[in-house]
Amino acid sequence: MRTLEDIHEEYDFLDADERYRLLIELGRDLEEMPAALQTDATLVRGCSAQVWVYPTGEADKLHFLADSNAAITKGIVALVIAAVQDKPASEVAQMDVAQALAPFDLKNQLSSQRTQGVPNMIALVREHAARLAAG
């Protein structure tokens, strides 16, 4: 998976339509989440589309599988995952993920429906990290 910084470097030079295409591409590039993991327990609440996040990995290296049934939303999911993927739980628990995503200016680039579930997804990721970091 590409780093958030690498993605932003490309994103910054694109116009609105190209940014949509990049988000769709990022969503397609997400590691496949098996359908068996797409359950009510892994569903992120508050999203306009269905979004599933499944944490794997250990405290020293968090790893998440994620998916969505909507292409643009899946790209936004990929941005959130890129911000935290394979980082230590202690770092992610303290991280301001929303601030890490701020350079993408998603609220002004996308409709509020597309981004409304992002805070819930960030909270889920950080809560999982905090549990692992606490031991």
Automatic annotation (TrEMBL):
Residues in Fe-S metabolism associated domain copies: 14-127
Ranges that cross the membrane: none
Database matches in Pfam families: SufE
Signal sequence bounds: none
Superkingdom to which the source organism belongs: Bacteria
PANTHER family, per the entry: SUFE-LIKE PROTEIN 2, CHLOROPLASTIC, SULFUR ACCEPTOR PROTEIN CSDE
Family in the record: Belongs to the SufE family.
Protein name (database record): Fe-S metabolism protein SufE
Organism name: Aurantiacibacter marinus
